[in-house]
Amino acid sequence: MKRKHRRLRNEADLDITAFMNLMIVLVPILLINMIFASTSVLELNFPTQDDGQSLDNDLVQLQVIITPEQLLVADNKGGVIKQIDSKNGQYDFEMLGLVMKDLKARVPEKKDITVMAMKKTSYQTLVSVMDKVRSYPAVIAGSVVHAELFPEVSIADAPERVNVGNESVVLNELKKQPELTQESAHNELKVKS
Q1: What is the phi/psi pair of residue 95, to 5°?
Q2: What is the C-alpha separation between 21 and 23, in angstroms, rounded?
Q3: What would the pLDDT profile of 144-160 be if each residue is shown by its tens digit?
Q4: CA torsion through residues 29, 35, 36, 39, sign
Q5: Residues 6+ away with beta carbon under 8 Å from 145
Q6: Which structural domain range is residue 165 located in?
Q7: For residue 55, is it within any domain?
Q8: How far apart are CA 133 and CA 100, in angstroms?
Q9: 83 or 191, which is more confident
Q10: Does 18 reside within a domain?
Q11: In a domain, 30, yes or no
């Protein structure tokens, strides 16, 4: 007769101590990084013209038109206030910021502006223009803050033609036109009192 030996089987306990230690360290790190990874959203408006309201001739609607060669600051009648030519193939955003500060000094109650881009304008260019027309860095009481320029930004398609002086010019041919002087730009800007 054969003897049967029964082996005692012990069930092994699962040791999750190392895993719990990892989670205790990993969860706070992920939570801290989640705060820094938040994205900001810019609320944009689309330009509208109510049929019930007639457009007042003295009311100014400021526009920034992005062309392949330059940035144009214009009014609602298509009259160019300032042409900002590109430097070394790059848009001159610093000059755009200075022009926006000058316009804000002329029309301090104005809060809205329309950014008009051509079809092949890059996303980064559009965002950079919107940043420059919304605010600028200023030092107040020893700290840097963003001073308000035109915070209500609308976006639209760029027109085919703009008015430079008394002439209507196709945007692609605009680089051949002479640059406006500061005096003529100041005379073209009409403000409702």
Answers
A1: -65, -35
A2: 5
A3: 888 888 888 888 888 77
A4: positive
A5: 137, 138, 139
A6: 63-181
A7: no
A8: 6
A9: 83
A10: no
A11: no
Does the reported pTM lie above 0.70? no
Please answer whether residues 149 and 135 qualify as being in contact, where contact means their C-beta atoms are separated by less than 8 angstroms.
Answer: yes
The tens digit of pLDDT for each residue in 23-66 reads 999 998 888 877 665 566 666 666 655 544 444 445 778 889 99
Q: Can you spell out the DSSP letters for the chain?
A: -PPPPPPPP-PPPP--HHHHHHHHHHHHHHHHHHHHTPPP----B-----SSSPPPTT----EEEE-SSEEEEE-TTSBEEEEEE-BTTB--HHHHHHHHHHHHHH-TT--EEEEEE-TT--HHHHHHHHHHHHEEEEEETTEEEEEES--EEEEEEPPSEEEETTEEEEGGGGGGSPPPPHHHHHHH-----
Taking a C-beta distance cutoff of 8 angstroms, is the pair 141, 181 a contact?
no
**CA–CA distance from 91 to each of 157, 170, 182 (Å)?**
18, 20, 20
* Model pLDDT for residues 81-113, shown as the tens digit of each residue: 888 888 888 999 999 999 999 988 888 888 889
> Does a structural domain hold residue 111?
yes
Query: Total domain count for the chain?
Result: 1
Q: How far apart are CA 168 and CA 188, in angstroms?
A: 15
